[in-house]
Every structure is written in C-alpha cells, then in structure tokens.
Write a structure and sequence with these properties.
about 110 residues, alpha+beta, four-stranded mixed β-sheet, 4 strands, about 25% helix, disordered C terminus
Length: about 110
C-alpha cells in the first residue's frame, strides 16, 4: 500500500445490511449541497414513500456520479447494455431524475 493511501474500515449493521428498495430518486440541489430522496412507487399504494434522504456536498455528489459511471460501465461490459425501457410519463428517465426544488431539470 502506498504511504498516501489509507485503509478504510466500515461497520455495516445488520439492519442497514438488509438495504431498502428504491425505484424512484428525486434529486435537488442548492449552492452548497445535493439532496437525493429515494422512494418506492409500488402498485396499490396511493403515492411514493420516501424511504431515505441523502444530503451531500457538491464534491461528494460528483464523486458518487463518477463512481456510478465507472460501475455501470463495468457491469455493462460483463452483462451487456442496461435497457432503460420506456420512460414513464410522470417520472423522467424511468423514475430517476431531477424534479422540483432548486435542482435543474434534465
């Protein structure tokens, strides 16, 4: 290991390890932070329920974007292209996108 590298040790509690399903993300931002609300939109429920809210600095949001881009590229090289299917009329990009708040719409 390089002297400049630090080993990161994380604790993953059992209740967190189970994870939370999300098929909708709403992203807004201000000058100093990005806010990502993860929600589930399921049949029979009157409206999507936000299950997690992540707030991060613009720098960390860009690091997340780059990490997702890298991982999606690796996934597609092993499994083929990810199909986005038909976009939903009410939620751009198949349920993931910028809606409301101060975020720019894509």
């Amino acid at each position: 290991m390089d002297n400049n590298e630090k080993k990161l040790s994380l604790e993953l509690k059992p209740e967190t390890a189970k994870g939370t399903y999300s098929n909708l993300a709403i992203i807004t931002h201000s000058h100093s932070e990005f806010i990502i609300d993860f929600a589930s939109m399921l049949p029979g429920l009157p409206k999507p329920e936000v299950t997690n809210r992540i707030i991060m600095s613009p720098e960390h949001a860009k690091r997340l974007y780059l990490a997702l881009q890298d991982n999606i590229s690796k996934y597609e090289s092993q499994n083929g292209p990810i199909s986005l299917g038909e976009p939903k009329a009410t939620f751009p990009m198949g349920g993931f996108g910028n809606m409301g708040g101060t975020g720019a719409k894509s």
